[in-house]
Amino acid sequence: MSAHRIPSPTKLERSITPAGDAITGYLAADQRTRRTMARAARASFARIRAGHGFTSPGSLLTSPDAQPKTGKSEVPTFTVMMTPARHSGLANVCPAATSCADVCLSTAGKGGMPVVQRSRLARTELLVSDPFAWGVLLAAETVAALGRHGAIALRLNCLSDVRWELAIPDALRALQAAGVTLYDYSKYSPRLRGRLDGYSITYSAHERMTDTDVVALTSAGHNVAMVFAVRRGQPLPATYLGVPVIDGDLSDYRPADPAGVVVGLRAKGAAIHDTSGFVRGAPMALAA
Question: At residue 282, does pLDDT exceed 80?
Fold first, then answer.
């Protein structure tokens, strides 16, 4: 940790520490024990999914071939996609969210389909109601992905903003040791995040983030993801306030980005019509 005070975990972050025990326990276990742990975790997840109308077992991780953005990444990238902000009614997985909660990427593409929303809700419910089973499934599916690819990237917060480095730091280190590259986006400021070597965090611009804030963050070597009022196929600005802009839509793999840049993203889903200031540039509602 740096010299600043260690941030306090949220109620959710404190409650999900069993997920960390499950991950480290699974990774350290023999094959027989792993099978027993995975069987119990899948049964727990199946009960929850049945309550949301599913008969199939489902998976915790979304694979790169099922996610257009991460499918472009140079490293096979798996994600955990849960119900964002307070929308699950179970817990707030995005405590730092601002207007992005209303224009979240969860509405983009197939994300708006009821079956997809129910699937994400089931993952969220598993984390809240049985974090140990959630951790076992994460570890089991990660090990399987490592077996197929050799090395993978993992984005735990595809639609959430949990500070995993505060909740399950030892488990994250165990995943890294197994060959996983960790990265995420966050609406928290750097001073409210913990520190974990090798865990790449890109900070998300929002309507309350001033131009001065953006320059300060990038000058300190942090990267800032920013949504622009630019339609698909159109070029992003080359710079923002003199800070280089890279095209974040070409790949979701942020650990390879140079330091101190703006990661430009084109507005998608409900964000196309945003007028809060979360999307930089002229409102796009009339340009659709």
Answer: no
CA count, 13 A, side-chain hemisphere, 219 = 8
- Pairing verdict, β 239-240 and 243-247: antiparallel
Q: What are phi and psi of 110, to 5 degrees?
A: -80, -5
Tokens of 197: 């070597």
The ranges assigned to domains in the chain are: 11-205
Span 103-143, pLDDT tens digits? 555 555 555 678 989 999 999 999 999 999 999 999 999 99
Q: How far is CA 251 from CA 35, 46, 209, in A?
A: 35, 33, 24
Q: How far apart are alpha carbons 229 and 206 in whole angstroms?
A: 13
User: Could you report the per-residue pLDDT of 191-222, keeping only the tens digit for each?
Assistant: 999 999 999 999 999 888 999 999 999 999 99
What pLDDT, on a 0 to 100 scale, did the predictor assign at position 6? 77
Chain mean position to CA 94: 10
Q: What are phi and psi of 168, to 5 degrees?
A: -140, 55
Helix (H) or strand (E) holding 211, with range, is: helix 211-219
- What would the two tokens of residue 161 be? 């903003």
55, with CB counted inside 10 A (0-12, 13-18, 19+), is exposed
